[in-house]
Write a structure and sequence with these properties.
The complex is a heterodimer. Chain A is mainly beta. Chain A has no helices and eight strands. In chain B, a hairpin with a 2-residue loop joins strand 9 and strand 10. The termini of chain B are far apart. The chains are: A mainly beta, B mainly beta.
């Protein structure tokens, strides 16, 4: 059964795309270089820009055919304002959101 | 009830679209709108056929590059200035998709008995239209799972 879309989404920009993650899964947020480090249980994600938190967006599952062209498995797709958003599981993020290998996981923590 | 001849003509009506050096015929009933190129946000790690994600009518819209999809040689001006919004798949599994293309040309009639040599998938076959061989596409096939 696919995961249910979260109610509150932390919206961020990364690698030219807009992404949404379950805001309740976020443990911390810290500036890191030109971007941000987002702490989630068991890991950390990277963002170029934090756009804010949006609630009750209508998230629809991605069409199965999309996997033919994109190997990632997002939770769903939605729109915030005029921006298309890819909603992802913060515990199984796409490669673009993961911190680069070799970077310190505690970097940026106060 | 419509006369049989009109039904046949409607079934064969296509929108002719330029994609690189190919002209592609899209079933008109699957075409929702032709718009100026939508702003596309890339999906990192996607194959070249998938340009990214756009917004259309308040909904997220995956956008595919039609020229790459049909393996057309790149034209002289590969800017893809139009997005053709189409339905792919069938029945309840129908989904909207954007096709980035060079131009929407005209509406043409492609008789089904003039279409030959399809691949059983997206390419329904080829057919002569006004002296040019066009690729006739089956957009229902695009919506099938991998």
């Amino acid at each position: 059964m696919p995961p249910q879309p979260p109610r509150g989404l932390l919206l961020l920009r990364r690698a030219g795309g807009i992404w949404g993650i379950d805001s309740s899964a976020v443990d911390g947020l810290a500036a890191r270089g030109d971007g941000y480090r987002i702490s989630v249980r068991g890991g950390a994600l990277a963002a170029d820009e934090i756009l804010g938190v949006a609630e009750d967006l209508s998230v629809r599952p991605p069409a199965p055919w999309l996997r033919r062209f994109w190997p990632e498995a997002p939770v769903g797709l939605t729109v915030h304002g005029r921006l298309p958003v890819v909603v992802v599981d913060p515990h199984r993020p796409p490669a673009a959101l993961r911190l680069d290998e070799g970077e310190r996981s505690d970097e940026g923590r106060d | 009830m419509e006369p049989r001849g009109q039904e046949t003509r409607r079934d064969g009506t296509h929108l002719l679209v330029r994609a690189g050096e190919y002209a592609c015929a899209l079933p008109l009933e699957a075409v929702r709108r032709v718009v100026r190129a939508l702003t596309v946000h890339p999906l990192p790690g996607a194959l070249g056929e998938l340009e990214g994600l756009a917004e259309f009518g308040g909904e997220p819209l995956p956008v595919l590059n039609l020229a790459r999809l049909v393996k057309a040689p790149t034209g002289a001006n590969p800017a893809y200035p139009v997005t053709v919004v189409v339905w792919v798949g069938s029945g309840g599994a129908r989904e909207m998709v954007g096709l980035a293309a060079d131009a929407a040309l005209e509406v043409v009639h492609v008789p089904s008995d003039s279409v030959v040599s399809g691949d059983g998938g997206l390419l329904a076959g080829e057919a002569p239209v006004a002296g040019e061989v066009v690729r006739v596409l089956n957009l229902e096939a695009l919506g099938r799972e991998a």
